[in-house]
Amino acid sequence: MSDIVIETDKITKTYASGTNEVKALRGVDLVVRRGELVAIMGASGSGKSTLMNLLGCLDTPTSGSYKLDGVRVDGLGRNELAAIRNQKLGFVFQGFNLLARTSAIKNVELPMLYDRSGRQRDTRALAIAALQRVGLGERLDHLPSELSGGQQQRVAIARALVTEPALVLADEPTGNLDSRTSIEVMALFQALHEQGITIVVVTHEHDIAAYASRIVMMRDGQVLSDKPVANRRNAVSDLAERDRTAA
User: Fold this and answer.
1) For the purposes of burial, counting CB atoms within 10 Å of the CB of 77, is it exposed (0-12), middle (13-18) or buried (19 or more)?
2) Handedness of CA 35, 190, 145, 130 (dihedral sign)
């Protein structure tokens, strides 16, 4: 098994806007290795959301190649991309995207119900294990409305993890959370990263990106910089410091 999970080679994305063309991505080269926690940053219009959609197999590049966990996915059809998303990707969104009238455990089971690989699995047991992994083993039957914002995001993270994906993509995962809860979510991501899970976080918040091991900065559809985080913050330590200060 290769240790490279994401490998893009000069991928571009051009959209038609009336009679004009909008070049959202202009030849992006990106490599993410197994077990990395990478933050992608950039201003509005930088191309980071377009790149996230391509990495998540929600869209296809205009040109260039993209390998996900060793499988070349650019050029695949809609059904093939859907299968790749189900088998190799876990998604975490800013708005949680939970079914409002469905319990935490049922929300986490959902990706497995769409699995067409024919694998026989105990979906309930796997969903319980995923919720326990994110610290919600006592909230299995709670509806989203009965959970805090941070707990809802943990359910979403459990849902992303339950299929044991090669890659977790988190799009502004702290955008709807207060500062303390945001740090708690990043503490969870750091813990998962230490367990060897590959995570890519798209964020516009420098404070959040500082918890990643590496920051990819986008501008005008290109990678402006790609550097390790020099003074990486530790979310657990930051939470402890906030508690000491508040005491």
Assistant:
1) exposed
2) positive
3-state secondary structure 12-44: EEEEEECCEEEEEEEEEEEEEECCCEEEEECCC
35 beta partners? none
What lies within 8 Å, CB to CB, of 103 at 6+ separation is 140, 141, 142, 143
Residue 107 sits at φ, ψ, to 5 deg, of -60, -40
Domains and CATH numbers, the chain: 4-246 (3.40.50.300)
Q: Which amino acid, residue 76?
A: L
Size of the chain, expressed as the number of residues it contains: 247
pLDDT string in tens for the chain (247-residue length): 679 999 999 999 999 878 888 899 999 999 999 999 999 999 988 999 999 999 999 999 999 999 999 999 998 998 899 889 988 999 998 888 999 999 999 999 998 887 766 566 788 999 999 999 999 999 999 999 999 999 999 999 999 999 899 999 999 999 889 999 999 999 999 999 999 999 999 999 999 999 999 999 999 999 999 999 999 999 999 999 998 888 7
